[in-house]
Structures are given as structure tokens and as C-alpha cells.
């Protein structure tokens, strides 16, 4: 679609950015909410959350870069709405980490800081991922799920899609 054709549907670049950002952040909330509310242990849910979130950021890295790194170009009211969604994504991850701490699965002295670090790890994939790179989105997702579980001090076998690996 040409830039001129876009402006038939969107009056400004900011409106287009807002729409893209809204879709991306709603997808993030859906991914993390499903993991938070899913069955299984906190370790299984955290592994699923990170694996799926990272895979989305790799598979859609161009869109994800716009969604994650262009917030400063949003109008004040749109910025506030998107920041609210980001707070909800943080709350979803924090909830899983808190569940793991309460169950004795995780050893996390700073839950808010660790949750932020986990999200940052996932989001940063959009910055560097390339289709012609050494790893597939699935491989990066699995790697980061294992890293996330080590970050929270999980000592058991790493839950993986389709089974458990040691």
C-alpha cells in the first residue's frame, strides 16, 4: 500500500502508529494473559509466557520494533492508553512470578525488578532478530524460556513445549 493510500484510512502518521501500537499491545496482553491464567505450575506458565512472547517478537520483529520502541511519537492521550496496557503486561508477568515465589518454585528477592527484566529480555528480541539468523523464532523462544526460569531461581527441569527437558 502506498503512503497516499494509507492516508485515506488514517488522517495522520500518529493515528496509524496508535492503531499499530494498540493491536500489538493487545496481542501482548492476550499472550501473557493466557499464560498467566493457564494451567500448570508457575514454572510452566512462565516458560510458556516467555516462549510465546519471544516467538511473537521474532516472527513479527518489524511490527514489534514499532510497537515497542516508538511510543514517544504518540499523542498524550494515546501514549497514556498504551502505557496502561504496558502496565497490564507487566502485571501479568509479575503475577506468574509472585505465584512461583508463593509456591516455593522461584527464589526472587525483587519481584517487580525481575518482572521488568523478563519483559525487557523478551521485547529486545525485536531489535536484533533476523530471519536469516542462526536461530528460528521457536529456538529463540525455547532459549529465552530457559533463561527466564534461571533468572527466577527455578531449580527443576525446564518445562518445554511438548515435554520436559533437563
UniProtKB/TrEMBL annotation:
UniProt key word Transmembrane = no
The alphabetical list of record keywords is: DNA-binding
Q: Which domain of life is it from?
A: Bacteria
A Pfam family it matches: TetR_C_24
Q: Domain HTH-type transcriptional repressor KstR2 C-terminal, which positions?
A: 40-152
Q: Is the Nucleus keyword given for this protein?
A: no
Query: Under what name is this protein listed?
Result: HTH-type transcriptional repressor KstR2 C-terminal domain-containing protein
Identify the species of origin: Streptomyces thioluteus
